[in-house]
Amino acid sequence: MRPLVILFLKELHGTFTSPIAYTVATVFLLVLGYTFSLTLFATKVANLNYIFHQVYVLSILLVPVLTMRAFAEERRTDTLELLLTAPVREIWIVLAKFLAALSLMILMFVGSLAYAVVLGLYGDPDWGPIYSGYLAVLVNASLLVSLGLLMSSLTENQVVAAALSLGTFLMLWFADSVAYLLPQPFELFAVNLSLIGHFKPLASGEVFLSDVGYFITLSLLALFLTTRRLMER
Amino acid sequence: MTVRPIKERHCEERSDEAISPPGVMIEGSEAPAILAEGVCKRYGSLTAVEHLDLSVRRGEVFCLFGPNGSGKTTFLRMLTGYISPSRGRITVAGHDVVRDGLAARRKIGYVPETVPLYGHMRVGEFLRFMAQLRGVAATAVAEAVDRVIDLLALGEVVRKPVRVLSRGYRQRTALAQALVHEPEILVLDEPTNGLDPRQIIEMRGLIGSLAGRHTVLMSSHILSEIEKTADRAGLLLDGRLLGVRAIAEVADLESWFLSVT
Lengths: 233, 261
Description:
The structure holds two protein chains of two kinds.
Chain A: H1 2-16, H2 19-43, H3 49-67, H4 69-76, H5 79-84, H6 90-122, H7 127-153, H8 158-173, H9 186-193, H10 195-203, H11 209-231
Helix pairs in contact in A: 1-6, 2-3, 2-6, 3-7, 3-8, 6-7, 6-11, 7-8, 7-10, 7-11, 10-11
Chain B: E1 34-43, E2 46-56, E3 61-65, H1 72-79, E4 87-92, E5 95-96, H2 101-106, E6 108-111, H3 123-133, H4 141-151, H5 167-179, E7 185-189, H6 197-210, E8 215-220, H7 223-229, E9 232-237, E10 240-246, H8 253-260
Parallel strand pairs in B: 3-8, 3-9, 6-7, 7-8
Antiparallel strand pairs in B: 1-2, 1-4, 4-5, 9-10
């Protein structure tokens, strides 16, 4: 475990000495604050459902920016050679990058807790959907970060990595849109592959193990494939 | 001597049974620090290294030399575990670099040709990170870092970000990270590349001072440097090792190089 901790701290250091993290966090919280104020004044309803959907969209747009450097930059600057010739397992390298990027996402989500506090102080929200909504954005971020890392491991060009990530996220988002064109069992597969199809119930307070399982399974699959990619020598 | 064009040649099939087990003692001598047996590396139809057999003794400075594209970097990358051999076996201090990769990598300090460093880190931070990554005990990290800072005369730049360092200091920092865990084997890919004459002399002196305590395997294509630095040299051409000579026994490397190419 010691190499994981060392690599994680190195990744955190890299994340917080880069302007990308601060830019992404600022954009994220500004847009979220704007949406929260606007919707609250317009609807006067004490829930965060629309905020969670906003987080979903922002995550799809911003995670590629966060993860594009992960392996692409290490490849471009040849520092991946330093890591892979050190006595550490590839899985630690992948997990360290995953945990560092996810930590930044969690910090941004913690910033958004201010909205829940405001609702709690000035309204009487139903806390169940708020808890499940935070679970939804967390597992969604986990999936997007792991997919972003996988895309970054495929290329040494950051822009290509970001484009691949964004394309993959959008295809997952709209996977169920093409379902009606496909024969069985592909129709069912496309419906079940849909990101929004699993996110929406969780964000609305309907917690199904299958939805949480979807995010966790795909996250693990992406991390596994990223590790395999690094092991390809 | 005629050499077939590399792109037309292929690694022939060779079974693992034909290769002795890792850590094998060579009759009449000490177990080598590095032992390569029938090593091949293919990229599709291109053969980068072909049936390379090499034994490097403990404590010596061994230099692989040859023109650009002869397979030096490919071999060093296989040795350090960055890429895997297509065939054959490499052992480092008795550890197979593929099957027992972590143990093998613990024995190696490596400076790649491109001198990759984390530009956003300060020199001290970078060396601490590499010491921890290479398995130096937490209580010994500070001491290990201080030791290489003194050895490589990095005191002046220890608080500077790596990205602002001159080429000479970058090379020294890279060498410091390779030495920070006191490896048995030091692998240097073109260590004098891009250095000015004074820095080359310093680097040569440094490598000389490491001999004995460490086994040094380096690559170079500068013949005069090899003559002044190495105990033995191996000539690589088109991925094949054409011969190994003790520097003391060779009148001059240039004549040898010209005679076999």
